[in-house]
Amino acid sequence: MGTSDPPIDVRIPHSGLVEEAVVLEWLVDDGQVVEAGVRLVVIELEKINLEIESPASGRIVILVPASDTEVVVGTTIAQIYA
Q: Does 8-81 carry CATH code 2.40.50.100?
């Protein structure tokens, strides 16, 4: 039997001295198959809205829902399963 590859993490990016961000809107659905480079989510970081793109192709599992809750920078907010 083969082993499956570990998932690829989608994280809140580091930006200067900012320690928290807000997940504003997911642009894809949980469980959706996505291609590398597709826009996944809109976050607010330093009062600027940023889009995070998929680092790989595969099925996305969303770990942090869109809300007004602050999330620590570096947190894994989704995973991509190839």
A: yes
**Residue 3's pLDDT band (boundaries 50, 70, 90)?**
low
The conformational region for residue 5 under phi > 0 = left, psi -120 to 50 = alpha, else beta, is beta
pTM of the full structure? 0.90
User: How many angstroms from the chain centroid is the CA of residue 47?
Assistant: 18
Q: How far is CA 55 from the centre of its chain?
A: 9
The residues spanned by each domain of the chain are: 8-81
Distance, CA of 65 to CA of 73 (rounded, Å):
15
Residue appearing with tokens 């894809």: 28
Burial of 19 (0-12, 13-18, 19+ CB in 10 A): exposed
